[in-house]
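User: Predict the complex.
Assistant: Input components as received:
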Amino acid sequence: MSLKLYNSLSSKKEVFKSISDKKVKTYGCGPTVYNDPHIGNFRTFVFYDLLNRVLQLNGYETETAVNITDIDDKIIDRVNQENTSLKEITSKYELSFLELSKSLKILPNNHNPRATEYVEEMIEFIQALINQDLAYEMNGNIFFDIEAYPKYGKFVNISDDLETEDNELSKKNRNDFTLWKAKKDSDGDIFWDSEWGKGRPGWHTECAVMIKTLFDGRLDIHCGGIDLKFPHHENESAQIEALQKHNLSNYWLHAEHLNMDDEKMSKSLGNFIDVSTLIEKNGSDVVRLFLLSAHYRTKVSFSQKKLDECKKMIDKIKRFAKNFNIDSKNIELKFSSEHELFIDALNDDLNTPGAIGVFFSFISEMNKKIAENSINDADKEKSLVFLKLFNSIFDILDFNNLHDQNIPKELQDLLVSRQEARKNLDWKLSDSIRDKIESLGWQVEDTSSGQNLSKKK
RNA sequence: GGCGUCGUACCCAAGUGGUUUAAGGGACCGGUUUGCAAAACCGUUAUUCGUCGGUUCGAAUCCGACCGACGCCUCCA
């Protein structure tokens, strides 16, 4: 099955067709670096990674960008509150974003452009819009004139009542948006010089110009959180499309929110959970699986119970994987029908829950054969291929570390003693040693091939 | 107020016209196995998909109304 993606432009699943044959260019709206990101932010970032990996699975070479918004009102607020510098705040949280991304196995992007490094281009871009009568100046602010761009409203129906005037900024039209913000006293030394005076670029212009500079304003796929659909993405594309007369992006993908008690998790509502806290408590593999365990276009409510269930799922996969001698480098990805079902699910608009279902059905089938001792070489090979395929997308297994290799000496000794006791049929001693092992945070299982020690769940 | 999304078992969650008289995970209960556990395996758990109508040979899937939840229209992943 060819890759299908739900395009927000048409509100339909569409067969994906790239601009050039092999290479796909994607851009995702990244974090505003003024705060530690919460788990909801990372739902979207992990979704970008999923898209990237599925594109690669389909044989595409990807060129990805996720921007760093490092000029913004909230950042300036923090700079003023903490009496520090812009760079100090933004570099701290940019680093935290990149580290958490790595920890959640998000593949590195080709570009992580910072808005502050493109201000010159932004000023030129705004000037070009003014020259084309697509923007106008008002008290040192520059606004995009949506009346000059009749196609405005690709993501929403702009209704008549929205045309009421908003006099606060003396805009011509309520939906005219800021390209350049005139400097305010509270901005301190955070400003750039332009022909229209001191100020700084607006958010929508930042993304538009980074895309223009890196990708010549022409993308295969633009993605972001659902809340950015309007006005951010509307405005982003309006600027580029009004000026360049072609689509900014052929596909627009929007990820739904992670909610907290059925309400959107957000920094402004204060109902968010830190990613780092969550990773520390549950492990990054569990958090990653949790974020991928629901389809990206459905709302998800956060709960610890779900994370606990994901942990159990991972344990089940690991137990299955331990049946095989995995040398992941030497597994040739030769797909059979079982694998194709998994790929089909992913190609059907990144249906991760469907793909997980296919994988678990396969595990069940193989486990049955293992229990009956009827598993053959072909099954084993299929299993290895499936494990590798699964991990190429979900990336929650460490094949080199499936067997807990670092067993402390103390435990090794206990295992030897227990082995001895079992040999002597001294169940009382054997069980007391088992209790001791458990009290140390490990657990021992007796299998036909001997004792199997693992970290306690 | 305008625009939009969603409502599937005890919980989570796929499926969006016939291969599904509804995947997969968790939980529960019964069984096989085991010295006992654990794990694994087998079986059971929605004749039903918010409610009521309609279209169709056929609907969880399409249409309408209603009820309920949420989002966007202001910063937001």
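Chain A has 14 helices and 15 strands.
Let me know if you want any component modeled separately.
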